[in-house]
Amino acid sequence: MVELVPGVFAGPRLRQSNCYLVHDKTLTVLVDAGMPSDRQEISRWLSESGWRLDAVVLTHGDVDHRGQAAQLASALGAQVWAGSEERSFLEGALRPRRLVRRVMAQLMRPVAVDRWLDPGAEVAGFAVWHTPGHTAGHLSLVRLADRVVIAGDALVVGRQGPIMPRSWLNEDQEQARASATRLMAIGPSWLLTGHGPPWHQPRAD
Ligand SMILES: [Zn+2]
């Protein structure tokens, strides 16, 4: 178990995307659930780690994050939580604007979500921020006390540091840019994204 920052652990190494385990006095949650084929890998990792999971929190509804969240959660006696604005996408009612997203959406099964998170909700010491653009209901988790950001696909960490996901992957590029700017404006000490390594920036002051 690699504790990246207090209370935030790197999830199992998956092929497509990252997931994280977030833990405080009140809750233990898995942030994102990889690809559907990653379910067993994640289950195994969780059982080896000995954590008792309260919820799987989805940053957004893409296939490489929603995985088999509902099946994973229910097997562990946990719930699935996601952003309230992502509801139509997760329930299969949304027709995405981007072609690549429409094709992907046809491969995805609806997810049964137990709790819809509104902006400002608190999850294990993190605040829920609505960070739309990559998808309409994308959320990020922000812990302002030590400026730790779990950004899903609102940002990607490349070789040079944080960048935006490719524009053709974003439902709304203007919104995506605004969300990325908002997240970077807090000067993250740690930025943990769905793709790319953890990015750490000691504060200059
Ligand atoms: Zn995505």
Describe the overall structure:
There is one protein chain. By secondary structure, the protein is α/β, with parallel strands linked by helices. The protein has one domain: Ribonuclease Z/Hydroxyacylglutathione hydrolase-like (Metallo-beta-lactamase, Chain A, 4-Layer Sandwich). It has six helices and 15 strands. The strands form three sheets. The protein has a seven-stranded mixed sheet. Strands 8-9-10-11-14-15 form a six-stranded mixed sheet, with no helix packed on it. It has a two-stranded antiparallel ribbon with strand order 12-13. The protein binds zinc ion. Zinc ion binds next to loops.
Strand tally is: 15
Mean pLDDT: 94
| N-end to C-end Cα span | 31 Å
Q: What would CATH call the architecture? A: 4-Layer Sandwich
Helix content: 10-25%
Instruction: Describe the strand arrangement of the main beta sheet, using strand numbers.
Output: 1-2-3-4-5-6-7
Q: Quaternary arrangement of the chains shown?
A: single chain
Write down the secondary-structure element order.
EEEEHEHHEHHEEEEEEEHEE
Brief description of this entry?
The chain has 6 helices and 15 strands. It has helices spanning 39-49, 63-66, 69-75, 87-90, 99-106, 173-185, and strands at 3-5, 8-10, 20-23, 28-31, 55-58, 79-83, 115-117, 122-123, 126-130, 139-143, 148-152, 156-158, 161-163, 190-193, 199-200.
